[in-house]
């Protein structure tokens, strides 16, 4: 068997690309290999047409600011924004380094808006604005209940709407659209230029710890069918929805009790230049009752390969696949004696979610167009086509009280010795890849952190601190990263 590689990255998406990029700068002498089962990288959740590319910073996503006991809880929104600032700092460092020579290839200015209608929702949005407008990370947020003002921000939202219906919107002009597929390609390209190995059409089919503490990885070549084995000192499972099954194959006790609830989806998309020209924003509304957070309706500008399009959705559904190009057996293969109670308990507690998803699966195209017209009343179905979105797998686990829950977020699962780790979950996902991978590095390489801290601080100046805690620090950070990424402050 060949010499062990230092770092094996399973999955060719934004998470593996981010972790590999970080480790390559922290330990230039380490050998790194990426194994991707498909014929190219960034084809699942990192693909720009499989996600909304919001650059999640909680500027517009109302699910991050729930109402609790009559008060708007903004803690999650601030946390997510903080995380996005960490990602922006790292990307800015790579731009300055020359690793990301053209930031416009993956990030573009697109204002972020929240838009609601009805007296109750207007009252909610007004109070949300008041709770966020003075926070340093939400500086520049505007609020209006005036149809003329809102129309000037996003013209498609107003024509055809009832004039007696209360409406409100918030807007932050400094929002962004991020093409995580392009970013993944750029990061992996730089990694391979620096010596990392990329193996596409290589599917990992087995993970086993050896007596000397290494990991034996069995890999099947998807074209020739041959099976090979490599050993690695550290393994990261960044396989999106496929991470659960692979971590189960590893046999680490830390994965026991975890399950995954798959959610599929679709978007309506238009490339009609006349329609696209009337909307330059990402506009998020309120979710339907029972809808998962990732199904909050939104009308988004997307910029892919320099070309703007509009997406509306997502229309959530249910599939037993854990990946868009996965198997219908994925869900069943994840069942284990230790997690059956998790699946059953979480399912019974979320029957409203199950009902919602079943309803979405059977929703007609006409119903989907009507949902679009709640945002853009004059939208014509002939301008829009349905595209299949990426597959998402929500974390199912036992909470501190031993009760089964569905967790709408991401979670790093790692072995006690730090030799293997994987990422489960979905939103906010890609936008917070950098802080997630920094957390993973701290968990898996605790003896290295002190040595790495100067370099980490160089790459992410706020490392170990909080950007939004100080108004001057926040303003300077936003100014610096906006200049590097060539976007608005």
Model description:
This protein has 489 residues and is an alpha+beta fold. It has a single domain, classed as FAD/NAD(P)-binding domain (3-Layer(bba) Sandwich). It is built from 14 helices and 22 strands. Strands 6, 7, 8, 14, 15, 16, 17, 18, 19 and 20 form a ten-stranded mixed sheet that branches. Strands 1, 2, 10, 11, 12, 13, 21 and 22 form an eight-stranded mixed sheet that branches. A hairpin with a 5-residue loop joins strand 19 and strand 20. The longest helix has 23 residues. This is Probable malate:quinone oxidoreductase. Its EC number is 1.1.5.4. It comes from Schumannella soli.
Count of DSSP helices? 14
Biggest β-sheet, characterized? 10 strands, mixed
pLDDT under 50 segments (min length 5)? Answer: none
Distance between the termini: 53 Å
**Helix content percent band:** 25-40%
Number of E strands? 22
CATH hierarchy, class: Alpha Beta
CATH superfamily: FAD/NAD(P)-binding domain
Strand content: 25-35%
CATH architecture: 3-Layer(bba) Sandwich
Domain module count: 1
In round numbers, the mean pLDDT is 91
Helix/strand-derived category reads alpha+beta
Query: What spatial form do the alpha-carbon principal axes imply?
Result: globular
Q: Which fold name fills CATH's third level, the topology? A: FAD/NAD(P)-binding domain
Pfam family, one: Mqo
GO biological process, one term: tricarboxylic acid cycle
Keywords: FAD, Flavoprotein, Oxidoreductase, Tricarboxylic acid cycle
GO molecular function, one term: (S)-2-hydroxyglutarate dehydrogenase activity
């Amino acid at each position: 068997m060949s010499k062990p590689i230092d770092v094996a990255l399973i999955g060719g998406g934004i998470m593996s690309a981010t972790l590999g990029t970080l480790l390559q700068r922290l330990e230039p002498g380490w050998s790194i290999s990426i194994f991707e089962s498909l014929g190219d990288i960034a084809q699942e959740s990192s693909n720009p047409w499989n996600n909304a590319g919001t650059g999640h910073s909680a500027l517009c996503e109302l699910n991050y600011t729930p109402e609790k006991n009559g008060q708007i809880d903004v803690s999650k929104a601030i946390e997510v924004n903080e995380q996005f600032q960490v990602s922006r700092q790292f990307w800015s460092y790579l731009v300055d380094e020359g690793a990301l020579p053209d930031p416009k290839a993956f990030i573009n200015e697109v204002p972020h808006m929240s838009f609601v209608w009805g007296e109750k929702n207007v009252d909610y949005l007004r109070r949300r604005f008041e709770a966020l407008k003075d926070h340093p990370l939400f500086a520049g947020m505007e609020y209006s209940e005036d149809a003329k003002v809102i129309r000037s921000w996003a013209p498609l939202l107003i024509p055809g709407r009832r004039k007696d219906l209360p409406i409100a919107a918030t807007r932050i002009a400094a929002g962004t659209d991020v093409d995580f597929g392009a970013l993944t390609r750029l990061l992996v390209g730089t990694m391979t230029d620096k010596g990392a190995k990329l193996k596409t059409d290589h599917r990992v089919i087995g993970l086993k710890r050896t007596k000397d503490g290494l990991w034996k990885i069995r890999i099947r070549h998807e074209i020739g069918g041959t099976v090979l084995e490599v050993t690695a000192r550290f393994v990261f499972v960044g396989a999106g929805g496929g991470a659960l099954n692979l971590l189960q194959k590893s046999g680490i006790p830390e994965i026991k009790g975890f399950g995954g609830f798959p959610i599929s989806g679709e978007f309506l998309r238009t490339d009609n230049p006349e329609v696209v020209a009337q909307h330059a924003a990402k506009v998020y509304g309120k979710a339907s009752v029972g809808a998962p957070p990732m199904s909050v309706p939104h009308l988004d500008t997307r910029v892919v390969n320099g070309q703007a399009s509009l997406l509306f959705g997502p229309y959530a559904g249910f599939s037993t696949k854990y990946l868009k190009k996965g198997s219908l057996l994925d869900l069943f293969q994840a069942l284990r004696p230790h997690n059956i109670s998790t699946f059953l308990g979480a399912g019974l507690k979320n029957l409203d979610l199950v009902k919602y998803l079943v309803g979405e699966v059977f929703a007609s195209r006409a119903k989907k167009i009507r949902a679009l017209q709640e945002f853009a009343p004059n939208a014509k179905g002939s301008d829009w086509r349905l595209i299949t979105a990426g597959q998402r797998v929500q974390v199912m686990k036992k909470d501190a009280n031993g009760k089964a829950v569905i967790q709408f977020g991401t979670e790093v699962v790692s072995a006690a010795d730090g030799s293997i780790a994987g990422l489960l979950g979905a939103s906010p996902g890609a936008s917070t890849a950098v802080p997630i991978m920094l957390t993973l590095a701290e968990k898996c390489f605790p003896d290295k952190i002190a040595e790495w801290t100067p370099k980490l601080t160089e790459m992410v100046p706020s490392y170990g601190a909080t950007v939004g805690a100080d108004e001057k620090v926040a303003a300077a950070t936003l100014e610096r990263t906006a200049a590097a990424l060539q976007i608005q402050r």
